[in-house]
Amino acid sequence: MSTHEPIIDIDPVSSARDGAAGAAQSGFRPPSYGAQGKRGASAPESAVRATVIDGGPPPAKRPSRIGGAAQTVIGGAIMLVGVPMLILPGPGLLAIGGGAVIAANGVKKMLGR
Questions:
Q1: What is the tens place of the pLDDT at every residue in 20-73?
Q2: In the chain, which residue ranges form alpha helices assigned H by DSSP?
Q3: pLDDT, tens digit, for every residue of 62-93?
Q4: In this structure, are residues 79 and 99 in contact, taking their beta carbons and an 8 Å threshold?
Q5: Domain locations in the chain as residue ranges
Q6: Alpha carbon of 112 to those of 1, 86, 109: distances in Å?
Q7: Which residues contact 65 (CB under 8 A, 6 or more apart)?
Q8: Is the dihedral of CA 22, 24, 25, 27 positive or negative?
Q9: How many angstroms separate the Cα of 19 from the Cα of each of 8, 15, 16, 25, 63?
């Protein structure tokens, strides 16, 4: 039973050192990166072609300020309808929350953000 490897590694630094020494003796070679490694980075063919990934193309037009004002008014009206629903039967909190979200989006449109 004493010939088995321990379950818990007591000294990970020496284990890593022993593993690295074993890899060096086994003939490990780092990757050569193909023909690019032979030519060097100064060759014109080794230029990197990269694509910038962003949020996509800019929006075609800015949001309308009139539409934002209308959305703010509609959101405010929904919030006002939700207040009596707190006492009367109906989803008062849901109406107030939904109206607040609609009004906030309208304010964003009015400010152009």
A1: 666 656 666 666 666 555 555 454 555 667 666 776 676 666 667 888 899 999
A2: 12-25, 34-39, 65-85, 92-111
A3: 667 888 899 999 999 999 999 999 999 889 99
A4: yes
A5: 65-111
A6: 74, 34, 5
A7: 109, 110, 112
A8: positive
A9: 16, 6, 5, 10, 61
